[in-house]
Each structure stands twice: as C-alpha cells, then as structure tokens.
Design brief:
Number of strands of chain B: 12
Distance between the termini of chain B: 30 Å
Radius of gyration of chain B: 29 Å
Order of helices and strands of chain B: HHHEEHEEEEHEEEHEEHEHHHHH
Strand order of the largest sheet of chain A: 6-7-8-3-9-10
Number of helices of chain B: 12
Oligomer: heterodimer
Largest sheet of chain B: 6 strands, mixed, barrel
Helix content of chain A: 25-40%
CATH superfamily of chain A: P-loop containing nucleotide triphosphate hydrolases
Number of helices of chain A: 6
Order of helices and strands of chain A: EEEHEEHEHHHEHEEE
Distance between the termini of chain A: 15 Å
Largest interface: A-B, 36 and 28 residues
Structural class of chain B: alpha+beta
Helix content of chain B: 40-55%
Largest sheet of chain A: 6 strands, mixed
C-alpha cells in the first residue's frame, strides 16, 4: 500500500483578478522503501506538491490519503498531529535551532511528540550516532559543517520514527561530497528502514540515487520513471 | 515536556544578551515607575488620614458637614458631657486640629497644624515618640514635633522655645515619621495650650473623640449619639478617614495625578516589553515556522513565547524590587513617603507577569498567523 496517495490535486493561487494554477490535476503515490525525486524547473509545482503531501498546505481540490487516511477533510487544527506523527521534514537551509545543541535539536522534535527527559536524550543520542554524529552531541549548529548540519536535520526528521520523509533541496547548500553523503544516508533509510522518501531537487548529481524520478512542468507531472523496483508492501528492493 | 519549552524560551532570550538587557531594563523601568507612583499614592493616602487612623478613637464628632479633618469647625464643648453620659461610651475627649503660625528664631513664619488633645487620655495623641514623652505635654506651652521637620521649623533640640501665634512654645520631644500631607508640620500639644495656639475659644472644641465601651457596637453607639446631639456629624473612624483620604486624593486631583502616572508606567512597560518580545519573536520566526511544520501546535508556540515573557517579567521584577526598596528607604527621610507593603510587592509580581504576557500577545498573534509553508521558501 502506498503511504501517500494523491489523486487529482489542484492548487490555485489568486493573482490579482486572475487565478494561477500551481498544481493541475496531479496524481501520485509514494511507496514505502522508495526514494523518489521530484525534479523540474522553478515554478513547476514541485515545492507546492511537497507542501501538500506534507500536510502543510491544503489543496484547492483533489484527494490526499496519508497512511490510508483522507486528510483533505480534516480541520486545519488536526493537521499538525498528522505531520508530527507520520512525516519527517528535511529543509534546504537545515532549519536547526542555533541556540540549541545538536542533541537538543533532535530532542526538541521528540518533545513535540511527548517524549521527554532521559528517554528523549537517549533516543536523540542514538539517532545522532546513527547519522555519524555521535561525537558531536554537545556541538552547536554554528560549529558544524553544512553536511553535518543536514545530518542533524535528518536525525531530527527521524525522531518520531515517521514512515514518510519529505526533503526540500537537501543537498543544495552542500558541496558535492557532503551532498553525496546525505543522499547515501537517505537512500539507506529508504532501502534498509522502508521509509518513503520524497525529495525535491534541482541537483542533477543526485539522480543516480533515486529509485524513481518524477518530472514536473507547469504544475503537471510530465514523466514518472522508476529506476529500481521496490516491493511496495515491505519496502524491500525487488 | 515543559522542561524543553522552558529551555527553548530561556535560550531564545539569552541568545541575544543585548536584547534581553533592553527587555529587562524596560520591565525594571516600568515596575519601578509603577511602584513609586503607587507607593506615593499609598503614602499620601496614609499620611492624609494618619491622625484619624492612629487616634485610637472609635467615633469622631465634628461640626455638621465637615468634609475632612483639616476643615474642622469649632463647636460648643458643652456637648462633651452629653457624649460622656451616653450609654456605651467608655471615653470621650476634646481635640483640636487647626492651622496656625510657627515663628522661627530667624523670624520666618511657618504654617503648622496644631493638634490639641488631653494628655491624660489615650486618644488623639502623638505616636512614635522618640525623645521626650507624650505626658510631658501636660505642662503648659510644651509641644512635640516630628524629627522630619526640624530644619523647616528651625528646631535643633529639646528645650528650645519658639512662638506660635504670639504664645510661647517649648519643644518637649520629637516623634519619628509622622508626616503631614499639607506640608504644614503637626505640632502636638495639650488641648488647653492648643486653644491659645489656634485661637479656639475657651468653651469651644473642634472634634470630640469617642472610645466605645468593650463589646459596644460602634454603629449602634453612633446612632445613639446622633439622636442626642444636634448640629454635629458623628462619624466612625473609618468613615472620617475615608472622607479625608477621598478629599485629598480625588477632590484635589492629587491622587488622580499619581494614579495616572502609575498607569503611564504600566503603558510604557507594556509598550517596551511588547516591542522587545516582538523583536525576539521576529528573530526566531523561521524557527517557529520550522516547529509548526514539524507539527507543533499553536499552543506549544504560545507557551514558548509566554515563558519568555514570564522569564523577562521575573528577572525585571527582581531587579525592580531592589531599586524600589532603595527608593522606599531613601524616601523615609524625605518629605514624601513611598510605601511598599508586602501585599503590594506581591501584587506587583502578578501585575508584572500580566504586563509581560499581555505584551507577548502581539507576538502570539504573529506566530498564530505564521504559515508553516514558509519553511519551503528558502
């Protein structure tokens, strides 16, 4: 079963008297164990689609099911719980809290989910260890390289053990070596842990890491190419 | 869970130490201004009615329609026997409160308020006597004044003699901390001497102070006295004190001015704190957007902002109280008393927290309207 099932998504923005269609009848599934890249030129609707499937933005029309639950009918105040429990986010600019240590940055995400104290600290430390930053628990973001910051952001996204990870240009601010390291980490999360990962990127160097590449133009999906088959039931490579 | 919110709030605050300093300074300024103004108001009101409140009397009998203590009008002292004969009266004594003129050794005249009472009665006399004794006023011409007014009256020691309206006045002692709201110092003396100092006729008095017998209901006694006396008002000590306070604080506008200044302090405090907390919120707006995207509820973010406000409030309050205590102590030796009783200090903590959290509402409104999709806009 697809973790995200989008059908006929439309998003229009008012632009003066006219309406601009950012998404035009987009249907897409995101499957467990799959690392999917969303590519396309600027203004093609990639980020709008990512925001909608991340339950941050509401579509103008269409259907969106996250882990089988129709979310377009939910009230706005119910959406934070969907994001908190089911989706992890990784941002282009890392969006770490500069006043908190790496450990506290990850623990804060756990705190949002109601995990506090020693349990949160231990889990945050384990997650950071998992992304290769076990020795940087007390470092502040300002003391880390771009690649390290993005790995902290990935650890934070994994804090609530969400089945879906959405990333917006996660390698854009990184050098090629760091970018590759981040993509390998995300690939590992998809293949070994069965996460459904959707990444918006302009970075063509990352295409080789994708299981599937979806190209968008003018708010529509113009191609959807599967590079490597995954078992959509278990998330394992087929 | 709250521990992390506190930690985030604290770190957001201390991250920019200059801004924190500005915030706390704003709170300190506002709290000190409010405390000083309210303390002055309290000091003024206490001062205006201190003679009444400290009289040890239950009832005050005054000429009809006397609005406040300084406006007492002489009436016949022949009402005193009637008062004393009324059932339920334990004691009653004549008292004079009248303005007069004190002549210093250098010839300068100073306005004073002569308080004439019966030194044999425990009603209407001075309190906080630090040199000499109230009983010394049994001797003719003896007076007791407050230490605060030594310079104003040109007094340096006990035993010195001056003139009040042409009559000899010998300083027999000093009190401590008995201020006069009218700037005319109180001069305590015997009733008999006061009649000379304040030109009150032989058979006249200005007030009659009444002490009710043990177990006697004061309200009932008041009614009983009113039924027996004509052309006078019989007021409970609380009523007369209230009338006097109301007159000086509100009819003259003095109290309103002080209260308005306190309100101004509150407004200044809210504006300063609102600005700095808003600026701090704007600094961390991207982080709040990230938290929202990660699934934080508005309530979670409100708690972060409110805790920042509460931390600022407590830090500002602590420093402001230190400054206020210094001001209060300094004022004890000056002409205007600033009072800071414990209930007011505790109340100020509540007011400071309300002020700061109220100031945080602007920031809360900003965060409420923050679109979490901003996190995907680079």
């Amino acid at each position: 079963m697809a973790l995200i099932e989008a059908r006929g998504l439309v998003k229009t923005y008012a632009q003066g008297d006219a309406a601009m269609r950012a998404l035009d009848d987009v249907s897409i599934d995101v499957n467990p164990g799959e690392l999917m890249l969303l590519v396309g030129p600027s203004g093609s609707g990639k980020t709008t689609l990512l925001s909608i499937i991340g339950c941050i933005l509401s579509p103008s029309s269409g259907s969106l099911r996250v882990l089988g639950e129709e979310v377009t009918r939910l009230r706005a105040r119910d959406l934070p719980a969907i994001r908190r429990e089911r989706i992890g986010f990784v941002f282009q600019a890392f969006n770490l809290f500069p006043t908190l240590t790496t450990l506290q940055n990850v623990a804060l995400a756990l705190d949002l989910k109601g995990v506090a104290g020693r349990q949160a600290r231990d889990r945050a430390a384990a997650l950071l260890d998992d992304v290769g930053l076990g020795g940087k628990l007390e470092s502040y973001p300002a003391d880390l390289s771009g690649g390290q910051k993005q790995r902290v952001a990935i650890a934070r996204a994994l804090a609530g053990d969400p089945p879906i990870i959405l990333a917006d240009e996660p390698t854009a601010a990184l050098d090629s070596q760091s970018g590759r390291a981040v993509m390998i980490l995300l690939q590992r999360l998809a293949r070994e842990r069965g996460r459904a990962i959707a990444i918006v990127t302009h970075d063509n160097r990352m295409l080789g890491y994708a299981d599937r590449t979806v190209r968008m133009e003018d708010g529509r999906i113009v191609s959807d190419v599967t590079e490597r088959k995954t078992d959509t039931t278990t998330g394992a490579a087929a | 869970m709250d521990l992390r919110i506190s930690e985030l709030a604290w770190r957001n605050l201390v991250h920019d130490k200059v801004r924190l300093l500005v915030t706390v300074t704003g709170v300190v300024f506002a709290v000190v201004l409010i405390v000083v103004e309210l303390g002055l108001f309290l000091g003024f009101t206490t001062t205006t009615s201190s003679l009444i409140d400290r009289s040890n009397a239950d009832l005050w009998i005054a000429a009809a329609r006397v609005p406040y203590i300084e406006m007492g009008v002489p009436f016949s002292e022949r009402k005193l026997p009637t008062v004393l004969a009324t059932p339920g009266v334990a004691r009653a004594t004549k008292t004079i409160v009248r303005f007069s003129q004190w002549q210093r050794h250098d010839g300068r005249q100073e306005s004073v308020q002569v308080i004439g009472f019966d030194p044999d009665q425990p009603l209407g006399g001075p309190w906080s006597v630090v040199e000499g004794r109230a009983a010394d006023l049994k001797l003719a011409d003896n007076v007791i004044v407050d230490e605060l007014y030594k310079t104003k009256l040109g007094v340096s020691r006990v035993g010195e003699t001056f003139e009040i309206r042409g009559h000899r006045a010998r300083v027999a002692g000093f009190t401590r901390g008995i201020r006069s709201f009218t700037t005319s110092p109180y001069v305590f003396t015997s009733f008999k001497t006061a009649q000379d100092f304040a030109t009150v006729a032989e058979d006249q008095t200005v007030f009659i102070l009444v002490k009710a017998a043990n177990g006697q209901d004061v309200g009932e006694l008041r009614s009983r006295l009113l039924s027996r006396l004509k052309d006078v008002d019989v007021l409970t000590t609380a009523e007369f004190s209230g009338k006097t306070r109301f007159y000086w604080m509100f009819t003259t506008g003095a109290g309103v001015a002080v209260l308005l200044a306190a309100l101004l302090g509150l407004v200044v405090g809210v504006v300063v704190v609102a600005q700095t907390i808003y600026a701090t919120t704007m600094d961390h707006l991207a982080e709040y957007g990230t938290l929202k995207a990660m699934g934080a509820t508005n309530g979670y973010l409100y708690r972060v902002i409110i805790q920042q406000a509460v931390i600022s409030a407590i830090a500002g309050y602590a420093l402001a109280m230190a400054v206020s205590v210094f001001v209060v102590r300094a004022s004890a030796k000056g002409g205007a008393a600033v009072l800071l009783p414990l209930p007011m200090a505790v109340g100020m903590l509540g007011l400071t927290i309300v002020m700061c959290t109220g100031a945080a509402l602007v920031s809360i409104n900003k965060v409420t309207r923050l679109d979490p999709a901003t996190v995907f806009k680079g």
